[in-house]
Amino acid sequence: MAAKQFRFEELEVWQKAATFSMDLFDLADVLEQRKYFRFAEQLRAATLSVTNNIAEGSGSLSKTEFATFLNYARRSVFEIASELMMLSRKGYLSSKEVNKSLPVLEEESRMLLAFMRPLRT
Predict the structure, then answer these.
(1) CA–CA separation, 39 vs 10, rounded Å?
(2) What is the full DSSP assignment across 35-94?
(3) What is the pLDDT of residues 110-121, one digit of tens each?
(4) Residue 66: its pLDDT value, please?
(5) Residue 1 pLDDT > 90, yes or no?
(6) 92: left (phi over 0), alpha (psi -120 to 50) or beta
(7) Which of 50, 59, 74, 93 has its CB surrounded by the most CB atoms within 10 Å?
């Protein structure tokens, strides 16, 4: 495997988000197959926001700025959870499809919060 070039690649919180993103992209593909294109697009955008904000923040020169980007990523995790819940309520995704994602999102949120705390002091 090639050496990691960017700081964020070393971060467990980014690695976990990147891995889980594949599952969320799969759900977006399901939405597209069902012709729910706007919902698929929104899910992909929110999913990319998590990893992108972690990556962007890791390039910050200050800890406070990095924490701000981690907070943006955490807010996107909440956006994804809300979107999945609403899609399930509407019947666009099954509760089974959604319920397997929610614990992972909750864990990601906790990881981001734990990572942010020491940066804000």
Answers:
(1) 31
(2) T-HHHHHHHHHHHHHHHHHHHHHHT-SSHHHHHHHHHHHHHHHHHHHHHHHHHHHHTSS-
(3) 999 999 999 987
(4) 97
(5) no
(6) alpha
(7) 50
How confident is the model at residue 99, as a pLDDT? 93
Residue 47 forms part of a structural domain: yes
Q: Report residue 28 as tokens.
A: 């977006």
Angle at 65 between CA 18 and CA 106, to 5 degrees: 40
> Residue written as tokens 């990319």?
48
Q: Which residues contact 46 (CB under 8 A, 6 or more apart)?
A: 76, 79, 80, 83
The token pair that represents 3 in the structure block? 């050496």
Whole-number mean pLDDT of the chain? Answer: 95
18, 51 in Cβ contact below 8 A? yes
Residue 83 falls inside a structural domain: yes
Which value, to the nearest 10 degrees, does the dihedral of the CA atoms of residues 34, 40, 30, 71 take?
A: -150
